[in-house]
Amino acid sequence: MTKTTEYLEAFKLQAPAWFAKATFVRDYFEFFRTFFKRENLEKAEWPDVQKIGSHLHCFQSMALAKGNALGRPNHPIEHYRKSFTYLAHGPGEPAERIRRFCNDAEYRLDYFGKAAISELVGYLFPEQFIFVNARDVFAADLLGISVEKQDSDDLVGELEAFSKATRQVAKQYEEIVGRQTDLPLNLEVDQFFSWLFENREKEKGNASEKQYWLFQANPAYFDLPGALKAGALHTWRVNKHKQHIKPGDQFIIWQSGKNSGAYAFATVMTHVGTLQENKDEAAFQVDGDSDGEPFTGVELRVDRNFSDTPILKEVVTKCKQLARRKEARQSMAW
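The structure assignment produced for this chain is given below.
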């Protein structure tokens, strides 16, 4: 029995209860099916666009990113109508439309990053693409699925490569678990991946307890408050404790220097590995010159962002628990 088969057999027993609770999957799918109808896009107003924020996981888990993208218009309403209409109904193959939606100024939407676009595409073209987020990537790694490496700026390449690599899992899912809903198969497979992620410590046989770290940024190299306020912080360079930092660990994001203190609280989403800085994060390098070279680090999720009111060093030093912290300092590249 392969690892994938073993996990699918286990999920089969829990799938009815899982989908009974995950009613949001249908709600989100139905929302976007209605939203992307041409007649609705042609008359969409700003409140209609703002509703997207309640139907994308990345915006619900990152309030600041949601506020930047959908708090108030970043473009005239005509631009939103044109962009979404092109993405859903424009000429050419979906892959080309997605690429232009991401990169072409004629269609690009400010603060709609890779995570948001990946979800939009997953709901709009569910027969062709599956979501690519931290949970899905973790599940693929757990199952030993080999995904062809793509340029970090090429979302379409990532979507195509991941969807191709997980196609066999979808086939096995249908054979072993069986359809639990009348939704597109990839949406159910994504929920199988989420189940794997939520059971990660038990499934990976990792009996170690969650650990807490301090990740430190140097303001001479990186504008940490700016990146947090823009919702642009998604990765972190790691030089120390590489073998001990693991998904599920949590950490304080600390800035050194004049305004030294804690600026956010976050969760590690991946094991330490080779990553590449994206443009959103690179924009906050103080020297403004990112060469895009691969680096060793982790993907992260910002859980609490208090960059507007950081907990400064003089307050932290009075806390004995924090005085005994473990450190995993940020690379001097920042």
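Interim note for the steering committee: Strands lie at 212-217, 235-237, 250-255, 261-268, 273-276, 294-305, 311-312. The domain at 212-323 is CATH 3.10.590 (ph1033 like fold).
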